[in-house]
Specification:
The complex is a heterotrimer of chains A (about 200), B (about 350) and C (about 475). With about 200 residues, chain A is an all-alpha fold. Chain A has 9 helices and no strands. Chain A is elongated and about 110 Å long. Chain B contains 13 helices and no strands. The two termini of chain B are about 40 Å apart. Chain C has about 475 residues and is mainly alpha-helical. Chain C has 20 helices and 2 strands. The chains are: A mainly alpha (about 200), B mainly alpha (about 350), C mainly alpha (about 475). Chains in contact: A-B, A-C. The interface between A and B is medium-sized, with 27 and 34 residues.
Chain lengths: ~200, ~350, ~475
Amino acid sequence: MGIEKFIFYIFSVLLIASASMVITVRNPVKAALFLVLAFFASAVLWLLIKAEFLAIVLVLVYVGAVMVLFLFVVMMLDINIERMRAGFIRYLPLGILVALTMAGMLIWVVSGDGSAFNHSVLHGPSYSNTQALGLVLYTNYVYPFEIAAVILLVAIIAAITLTLRRRPNTKHQKPAEQIAVKRHDRVRMVKMKAEERK
Amino acid sequence: MIEWITSLLSFLPSGWVTVIIILIKIVVIVLPLMLAVAYLTYAERKIIGAMQVRLGPTRVGWNGSLQPIADALKLMFKEIIIPAKASKFLFLLAPLLLIGPALAAWAVIPFDAQMVLANVNAGLLYVLAITSIGVYGVIIAGWASNSKYALLGAMRSAAQIVSYEIAMGFALVGVLMAAGSLNFGDIVRGQEGYGFVSWYMWPLLPLFVIYFISGVAETNRAPFDMAEGESEIVAGFHVEYSGMPFAVFFLAEYANMILISALASVMFLGGWLSPLAGLLPDSVFEIPLLGPLLGSGIHWFFIKIAVFLFFFLWFRATFPRYRYDQIMRLGWKVFIPITIVWLLVLGIAILAGLPPWFSAA
Amino acid sequence: MNFEMPNFLLALPEIFVLGMACLLLLIDLFLKDQDRHLTYLFSLFTLVLVAVLTVYGYSGERQISFNGAYVADGMSQVLKLGVYFAVFVVFVYAKDYLRDRGIFKGEFYLLGLFGMLGMMIMISAHSLLTLYLGLELLSLSMYAMVAMQRDSARASEAAMKYFVLGAIASGMLLYGMSMIYGATGTLDLSGIASQAATADKTLMAFGLVFLLVGVAFKLGAVPFHMWLPDVYEGAPTAVTLYIGSAPKIAAFALLARLLGDGLINLHDQWQGILIILAVLSMAVGNIVAIAQTNLKRMLAYSTISHAGFLLLGILTGTRSGFSSSMFYALSYVLMALGGFGMIMLISRKGFEGDKLDDFKGLNKRSPWYAFMMLILMFSMAGVPPFLGFWAKLSVLEEVVASGMIWLAVVGVVFSIIGVFYYLRIIKLMYFDEPASEEELECSADMRLMISANALMVLGIGLFPGALMAACAAAFSTT
């Protein structure tokens, strides 16, 4: 068995196992951690098909930023697992139906004559995915790319609008003012005559 | 050397030989690194001692030089205590998650023009991605300990690391713009020319400073050591750790310091390049003994790392700890705007072909 | 790599709005609360300028730029001008209302402008990608606007519902788009149109269904309408006004681009779905509206029924059908602006005039505004000679012309049922005793605007030719 196949099987098993753990494990923090593991395993699979940019960005964005914040929130929540599981049996048939449909569609797509999949071109080691993506992104797709940037800007504005509360009566520290303070702002020298003791 | 190993292992399929050679290379990088970590702790105690007019360790070995070895032995033989109701597996996994990325990032760092484990085109991104995983070690340690101080420390640290990662990422974007490449080897070669004048630290000065300060914050070192904060939350996320797991946390912190220093020197100070190459006449570098010393080589890389490490220690001896809101303010309201503005300035400089850094482009 | 420098000038209105919105973001940061009206004036100024840019920047022919992502044609020009007008009116109406409720913040205008940018992008989209991104930009702005009144539990609940259902709808839409992309191999709408004949039929049908479900969610067509009344009622009226007006034009554009430009060859397949959506919308909207006591809720159901009528024109699949729907969308927006504007007119600090009973005896309090409301309600009901009549007439004409007489009859029946609840308001205004004798208090620009708005409904109703011609011309170029 070639080393690539070996790595592929190890990480695909890891991916499937951790993905199923995400939905079966009882503790939400552990579920989030398994999700991280799943992201990691899929990043490795992407590396195997030489999509290094996507793999690295998956780790950088999802593992490094999104899931950290997610964990941050989950760790502070007090989730009652029993209550969440209450409707499990009731929703099970529906869930199985959806899962079977998805599986059926996947099998339908994959078991075709494969004509949809023979477009991939293998490039040599000097080919840079990152550069190729960048070139397309900033030329042909510059308009959608800029709109996506505007959407993120709106998301920032929206988040700040909904959360920022100006509280004028709290005591803030203003380091710039603190540093700019001069002696005469704080201390006043007063000349006075010594008082005689009576 | 490599040919010799290949011939020795010729009975194996070729794929496996590559794996074994890579493993050997990893050992060659990691072992000295661990030794460096050990002696960094010694240097820290000696240097801070000197700054505070004390002696530091003196008893074990000549001037205390065997102290780190003694410390390591002590920690190895201590009992590993796992708190009641702690999540055992995660509790033990956390230190490994912290040290793993600190070591893995070395894969793409070039020690010399040829000496690099993996000459990856997206090296810069790889480092950014790998170092961002380290935060899980801290979070998991805090959560798995089942202790409120540990959890508080983990929360602080997670927020801090995520915040500073943004400024750090922007600083790296500056490097990427200047070099036009994500490959560390190419980044260093982009700084060749007029010795230290050609280093990226000059056109990227604000980014350089921000990168290094963010690096200090990322490693949770003083004055950003809020995650530990011994005076407020005892020792933060690793309060419940003892013995070898604690030692691994310690190793990870120092390994991260070395990593940040190495990255800073590669990206801003020209890595293995000599500060004099290109400034002195070529004949100087042909003088026996002195010439190779003055010329580019791995020793310059180590000297640069040492300088940065000295800064780390110096900060710790000098600055009082930041308060939490001050850290957030600095990261979000000072660093991020500065980096964004400087990226704009940099873009203009690159377009204008500002010599000597961007004249070729 | 073959790359052609895009014609940036074509997208000048979008670029201008983005630039001005960013500028406003910076300016607003440094304004004190008492100077906030500068933000308001700046936004209005932006709208006027962009209208000028749009009119003068258009060469009169269909042009495509940005590697097929952007199109400027007759339809985009007319619809954009309609959107600018609607947003302008919304901004004017909203000022007093927001100020009275302590949410007179720059963010309303900012998000309003960004939402408008999203609508412009949708209107000028020529690829699935831009269509989706424009829709998301619009939706995101609207979610935030609904939630803006943070202390109101109802607004938060409405925002939550809107967000969750909107996200599901976006997911559906995206899923459908990905299938169509998979089947045709292109995101470009004209590319899809030319590939549709040879593409995998099953995959296209699946994609089409998901696409239409997503669009129906966004449009609020039955059976995907459940969010609409709650959101309309829960949101601050100023925001209801925004989400109930201009985005309808954008929704029409979404349908026209997707079905008209991209999937016109699948007309046989989507016609049936649209017929079901249209009939259900007209039925549920008009019948449930009768039971409402809250005017905002009633108008929400009326929106649903109007969405049904909008679909009637589109489902014919002809150019004149699309242009009649476009006329319908523009007329509806004009009437909706007036309708929600009246609620804001009789609202004041600490009092929401959104109950039907609040309109009791309006004639005694202010005959002029009661008359304005009369015009608006008659128009919505489709009574001649008001604008709404011509809108309904033109759509029904198209349906008859394409041979679906039964559908036209259904439309007429439901619109007659609808007349009942519009007339009820007129009865309340003219024949009931007022609950309070208080004077209506509002600023001059609001009075002027709402009178102009209602009179426009009357005026265009009397002379509908110009607008109809513009709509017809918009579709003659494509």
